[in-house]
């Protein structure tokens, strides 16, 4: 692919790429999940 065809990476894309490399997402989600509200079949609050 030529340089002209490549899309410039936005700051947001660069930030998210760096966060994926640094944050242990599976461990973080396992820590948060027990306290996260569960969705009910009927929905609502």
Give a structural overview.
The chain is mainly alpha-helical. It has a domain at 11-35. 44% of the residues lie in helices and 0% in strands. It has helices at residues 11-22, 25-32. The termini are far apart.
Short description:
The protein has about 45 residues and is an all-alpha fold. It has helices at about 10-20, 25-30. The model has no long low-confidence stretch (mean pLDDT about 85).
In N-to-C order, the SSE pattern is HH
β-sheet strand percentage: under 5%
- Secondary-structure-derived class: mainly alpha
Mean pLDDT: 86
Sheet having the most strands: none
Cα(first) to Cα(last) distance is: 49 Å
Shape annotation: elongated
How large, in whole angstroms, is the Cα Rg?
18 Å
- Can you give the helix content as a percent range? 40-55%
Low-confidence stretches: none
Number of helices: 2
The number of strands is: 0
Features:
45 residues; mainly alpha
Topology:
Blueprint lengths: L10 H12 L2 H8 L13
């Amino acid at each position: 692919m030529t340089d002209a065809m490549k899309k410039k990476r936005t700051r947001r894309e660069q930030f998210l790429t760096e966060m994926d490399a640094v944050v242990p997402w599976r461990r973080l989600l396992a820590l948060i999940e027990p306290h996260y509200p569960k969705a009910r079949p009927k929905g609502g609050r």
